[in-house]
Amino acid sequence: MREEDSMKMERRRIREQIKLAFKCTAPPEASQIVASSYPEPLQIRDFFKGRNWWDVTLDILVNEYVGDASACLSFMAPVGMRYYLPAYLFIACEQYDEGDVISKELPSRLLMYARDDDLYKIKCMDDAKQAAVAQVLEFLVQAYDDEDAYEALEFFWGKFL
Question: Which of 17, 30, 55, 155 has the least C-beta neighbours within 10 A?
Answer without folding.
Answer: 55
